[in-house]
Amino acid sequence: MRRPLLRFALLGALLFAADFGWSARRAPVEAPAPGTAGARAELPDDELLFREALARGWHRSDAIVQRRLARNMRFALESRGAARRGDAALVREAIALGMHRSDRVVRRRLVQKLRLQIHAGARAQEPSEAELAAYLARHAARWTEPARRSLTQLYFRTRRDAEAARPALPALSALSAASGSPAPEAKAGALPVGDALPLPRHLAGRSRAELERLFGPGFASAAFRAPDAVWSGPIASSYGYHLVWIHQRRAAVLSKLSVVRPEVREALLYERGEAALRSELATLRARAQGCTGTQNGAGGASGAPDSR
């Protein structure tokens, strides 16, 4: 008997090493032995879901789990006889040896399958337009279009150069809301060139975050505070100094449901699924704690029995 047991032990070690990517924080925790100080310790979510999957008999019915267990048994036996035996017999033997409990791939598969089933049940009913609108209103920050500015910027290496150029700059007419492009005189090159900078001189409809990525946070904040239709600056950036003309400003606005309906629907359904999962876990945890208390009081062994 020593040789099969030794092979089984080696199999467990090899499978553990092969599955090193599985996060340790999600590793299941075995229930403490009765009578110990931690007998009523709370079980991790994944362990509760795994036990429920076993109670439903999924380790015997799931095709992926069956293939995994049959392959493990063939590897453990290392004999021609194993190759001739059918998968069903190998799966039964693997379950009898407890391989379905120790194999992390099997655990992960069953836990994920149960999570998905719980989510699917919660997502079955399509949300109404009123529910979608209410969800959008409750999470307005997620779907609010940021405030934007359309501007022209002229770059100078030094503050002195920027200050010297400012009095000679022509006034720019307001940006046409219809065209969304800079004024004709700006396009025609009537403005002083300033110093070379490999960034756009005319920027239409840029958010604060976009300006921060281009010029730095100081420039973005100053540009958003600058008044319309006058040259402001010099404004410092990551590169030097700029004179800025604000053509147009647009306030932050909540996106219309017709535009973001797919994203709102998915977020609402996901939230439903997570609520259903939390409810199911609460039920499983209460059941597990009740069983532990009963077994401890009766002196029985803890842990969920395997469904045969």
Description:
The chain is α+β, with helices and mostly antiparallel strands and 308 residues long. It contains 14 helices and six strands. The protein has a four-stranded antiparallel sheet with strand order 3-2-5-4. Strands 1-6 form a two-stranded antiparallel sheet. Helix 2 (45-55) crosses helix 8 and helix 2 packs across helix 14. The longest helix is centred in the C-terminal third of the chain and has 42 residues, at 257-298. It is elongated, with a radius of gyration of 33 Å. The two termini are 25 Å apart.
Count helical runs.
Answer: 14
Content of β-strand? 5-15%
Largest sheet: 4 strands, antiparallel
Name the strands of the widest sheet in spatial order. 3-2-5-4
Gap from first CA to last CA: 25 Å
List segments where confidence is low: pLDDT < 50 over at least 5 consecutive residues.
1-39, 174-180, 184-188, 299-305
How would you sum up the global shape? elongated
Mean pLDDT: 80
The number of E-state strands comes to 6
